[in-house]
Specification:
By secondary structure, the protein is an alpha/beta fold. It contains 13 helices and eleven strands. It starts with 10 loop residues before the first strand and ends with a helix.
Length: 343
């Protein structure tokens, strides 16, 4: 039975969709004893047939990236996928990842109430991403009632996280509870289930604060972008490296949740009410109406992956301004491990 025991340090590399965290980054993190995470969100966007057959392209790419990560990990650490409930391929890609032997499935962007059923029969850990005690209570109660299944760990994501947020726009802009308080709430609800704190964790001081609140470990994403092994293009990395705290905004997402990312020309225009009708829709998000959506988030994230600052979407955490230079996963993990062991 798979457990967290293979982690030599309780650090999860957060999932970053549409090409930012795939097999290269995940495998490198696992090789250092952490949990490397592959995002399943439109992972097949570089496949030649993606726009005509997105489901098959995503399946093909996910298999390849899991195998790549497994080889790079050398059997160390743990490998997980991050699957968004809001995506139409959620169920299929979760089952596929399990059949490929993934160690864990982490799921958010909605309450992953069906995760125990989707993973039934597989030796795999499952973990919800929650925004506080209430969401944790709901998920854990439903998993227990319907499936007699506990979470193997929980990720609690604070309001300063990058990407999609389980908060209102006002909360994301500063009225939400501090992350250590959210950790305490979720730890109480979990009754012994390991809790990983996420949302602009950057250094030892951040780790110390959440550890004191009851965190078993931490999840970090933005700092891993500025590594040689990150799967994003150098153009994407350069945009992140050049960003300051003032460049970050709470943006509107077709997923139906507020998100945190960079204030690019595209996002500025969208905030002003300008619409950019999708040129081609692959039906990747539940409830997204191509005729009404302000912009195609899939296309914007792909443009971001390639470093197109004018037309791209660059999700990032609130501490992006502290990411100042390129490094390697090994160097970053060594630094983080040393910080964690000091606590």
């Amino acid at each position: 039975m798979k457990t967290l025991d293979k982690l030599t340090v309780p650090i999860i590399q957060g999932g970053m969709g549409v090409g930012i965290s795939m097999g290269g980054l995940a495998g490198a993190v696992a090789a250092c004893g952490g949990m490397g995470v592959i995002s399943t969100v439109n992972i097949g966007f570089r496949e030649a047939d993606f726009w005509e057959n997105p489901e098959e392209a995503n399946r093909r790419a996910l298999k390849a990236e899991i195998e790549k990560a497994r080889v790079l990990s050398g059997g160390r650490g743990l490998l997980a996928v991050n699957a968004m409930v809001a995506t139409t391929g959620f169920s299929d890609l979760v089952r596929l990842a399990c059949s490929c032997g993934i160690d864990a499935v982490i799921s958010g962007a909605g309450l992953p109430l069906s995760l125990p059923e989707l993973t039934k029969g597989f030796d795999v850990m499952i973990a919800p991403i929650v925004s506080g005690g209430r969401a944790a209570r709901t998920v854990l109660a439903m998993w227990n009632k319907r499936h007699s299944r506990k979470a193997d760990f929980i990720v609690v994501e604070g309001s300063r996280a990058g990407g999609h947020l389980g908060f209102t726009k006002e909360e994301a802009e500063g009225t939400a509870k501090p992350l250590p308080q959210l950790v305490s709430e979720v730890a109480r609800e979990g009754e012994g289930i390991p809790v990983f704190a996420a949302g602009s964790i950057f250094d030892g001081d951040d780790m110390k604060a959440v550890k004191a609140a009851g965190a078993f470990g931490v999840q970090m994403a933005t700092p891993f972008i500025a590594t040689e092994e990150c799967d994003a293009s150098q153009g994407f990395k350069d945009v992140i490296l050049a960003a300051s705290e003032e460049d970050v905004m709470i943006l509107k997402s077709p997923v139906g949740m507020p998100g945190r990312g960079l204030r690019t020309p595209l996002m500025e225009k969208v905030s002003e009410g300008v619409k950019f009708p999708p040129k081609q829709c692959v039906g990747c998000i539940h409830g997204c109406d191509p005729g009404q959506t302000p912009y195609c988030i899939n296309r914007a994230l792909i443009e971001g992956y390639y470093g197109n600052y004018e037309e791209g979407l660059f999700f990032c955490g609130g501490n992006v301004g502290k990411v100042g230079e390129m490094t390697t996963v090994t160097e970053l993990m060594e630094e983080l491990t040393a910080e964690w062991r000091k606590i």
